[in-house]
Specification:
A: 256 residues; mainly alpha; MetI-like fold; 14 helices; 0% strand; B: 311 residues; 2 domains; two-stranded antiparallel ribbon; 15 helices; globular
Chain lengths: 256, 311
């Protein structure tokens, strides 16, 4: 029963468009299958552009996050400095006050910084990630200090130690964080909806919503099913292929 | 590990007078430098908005008047029946999703904990909804819940049940929204329950069984207490989700019919984007965030107790 919506999505999206609307609800696969609905969805929405924008947003967020969380994670894992506990708690506050909750004041900030209606505006609030800092701190802590001690004796700076010694060893942590981050931002809706208004800067979720709202009146459910499948496909396929890694990452995201 | 050894060994570094630069730097300065990128963005998009929201909430801005301090925004908020409806709905929505999601997740986890081929497939099916966007789920459920021709009514009609306007009926709409969220979140919760179950040593069950505890008693007195931290964490997550997961409300019902699915975050969004009432939006944000933090602290307290229990 849990899979019924997916089964319907698959079957309805492959149903020939001319089939009567009466049996669109049927879960019985009815050959011949066609990709007509996918073609129509692709043509009536700007899927290529939405994919590109979503990829830019997810990729941009991830790259900046990788840098910011690696530096901060290292500071919390390896340096003993005064006030460390308090700063750490200040970081963790973000876990309970995610940017989603603060959309209204963040809109003001974005427009004051001149990032309104830019993809950068969608990304900026996520450049710092308390969760990522936490995850990298744990990853770095699990690495024996011997490696970096050797590098430090050779005169390596902190940045060199992070870049050349710790990050190669912390790759599972970076991957886990990437999966969690991309999954979250690929699927996000309300903030990109608010932050961007030009049609050519929309992401997949926002595009799908407008696409669905436009198609609903014509009861083009097969096309909507196809559009939904297009939006969800990359993550679903990624999950099915790398299931173990996905599950480990997503569960780690909660285990503190 | 081998990889790293090679990597370190191949690392050639510029001959720099050892330690001269960073011996003079205190750990505080180094840490400040490393934390600066994160702190800058946290300041801009977490601390600053919280601060301005708090200030804005207590500022009364009459038309063409000088702003004054006061509780006027909160008074207006509490007098607004839309806000009260949104608050009540958010509470219902949060409770209505957390409890069934947890029960289902725990049930699925207990049923599917043995790794067999069939269980792996079933687990995947339960997990998949968490990967699609909530807007995507909304698109699918728009059709499933479509009155008359939709999937649900089509099959209910075969059982002799007439068409129902699931989203158009104020008594049913919130239930439908809750149902979608449960469908979407249960898989995620199940993953945590599976991880939690895997962490319980088999001997505990064995000992309980030897003492004559039945399946129900073992669940009640062994499994559930040991899952305490997991459940506590999931409750905090559920509270946060209850406030933030409203994408399907935005696209499916816009808070209607007659406010029956309006939520706090959607109310805030409406005040700011449609009514341009920044004071009211700020007051509502502050109330929501305060409630969330208070409830999360309570849940985390419970979580701590669970951990003490464990040790």
């Amino acid at each position: 029963m849990w899979a019924v919506p997916f089964v319907w999505m698959a079957i309805a999206s492959l149903r020939p468009g001319l089939a009567g609307a009466a049996d669109i609800a049927s879960l019985m696969p009815a050959p011949p299958f066609t990709f007509g609905n996918y073609r129509e969805a692709w043509q009536s929405g700007h899927f290529a552009l939405w994919y590109l924008n979503t990829a830019i947003v997810c990729g941009g967020i991830l790259i900046v996050q990788w840098v910011s969380v690696s530096l901060a994670g290292y500071a919390f894992a390896r340096l003993r400095f005064r006030g460390r506990e308090y700063v750490f708690i200040a970081f963790l506050l973000q876990l309970l006050l995610p940017p989603t909750v603060l959309i209204v004041p963040n809109m003001l900030t974005i427009s004051r910084l001149g990032m309104q209606d830019h993809l950068l505006g969608i990304m900026a609030p996520y450049f710092a990630s308390a969760f990522g800092v936490f995850l990298m701190r744990q990853s770095f802590r699990a690495i024996p200090r011997d490696f970096e001690d050797a590098a430090r004796i050779d005169g390596a700076t902190h940045l060199q130690v992070i870049r050349h010694v710790l990050l190669p060893l912390a790759r599972p942590g970076l991957t886990a964080f990437a999966i969690v981050s991309v999954t979250a931002h690929w699927n996000e809706f309300l903030w990109p909806l608010m932050a961007v208004s030009s049609p050519d800067r929309q992401v997949l979720t926002v595009g799908l919503a407008s696409f669905t709202a436009g198609a609903e009146s014509g009861s083009e459910w097969g096309v909507i099913a196809a559009g939904t499948a297009l939006v969800a496909a990359p993550l679903l396929l990624g999950f099915l292929v790398f299931q173990k890694r996905f599950v480990a990452s997503l569960v780690f995201s909660g285990l503190k | 590990m081998e990889y790293a050894v090679q990597h370190t060994a191949s690392l050639t570094l510029p001959a720099r007078p050892r330690g001269r630069v960073w011996r003079r730097r205190t750990p505080e300065i180094v840490a400040a430098g490393l934390l600066a990128p994160s702190l800058a963005f946290l300041a801009a998009f977490t601390y600053w908005p919280v601060l301005t929201t708090a200030l804005r909430a207590f500022t009364e801005q009459g038309f063409g008047q000088r702003p004054t301090w006061g509780l006027g925004n909160f008074a207006r908020l509490l007098a607004d029946r839309h806000f009260l409806a949104a608050a009540a709905n958010t509470a219902l929505y949060t409770l209505g999703t957390i409890i069934p999601s947890l029960v289902l997740a725990l049930g699925f986890a207990l049923l599917l904990r043995e790794t067999t081929r069939l269980n792996a497939i079933l687990r995947t099916m339960v997990v998949l909804p968490m990967l699609i966007p909530l807007v995507g789920a909304a698109a699918l459920f728009s059709f499933i819940l479509l009155p008359g021709a939709g999937l649900l009514d089509w099959y209910l009609a075969r059982l002799g049940i007439g068409a129902t306007n699931w989203l158009g009926n104020p008594d049913l709409a919130l239930g439908a929204i809750i149902g979608i969220t449960i469908w979407k979140n249960t898989g995620y919760y199940m993953l945590f329950c599976l991880a939690g179950l895997a962490g319980i040593p088999e001997e505990f069950h064995e000992a309980a069984r030897l003492d004559g505890a039945g399946g129900w008693a073992r669940l009640r007195h062994v499994t559930l207490p040991l899952l305490g931290p997991t459940i506590g964490f999931l409750v905090v997550l559920g509270l946060l989700n209850g406030l933030t997961q409203i994408d399907h409300v935005v696209v499916m019902t816009q808070g209607g019919p007659s406010d029956s699915t309006n939520m706090l975050l959607y109310y805030i969004y409406q005040q700011a984007e449609q009514n341009y009432d920044a004071g009211l939006a700020a007051a509502a944000t502050l109330v929501s965030v305060t409630m969330l933090l208070a409830l999360a602290v309570l849940a985390l307290r419970g979580l701590e107790r669970g951990i003490h229990y464990e040790s």
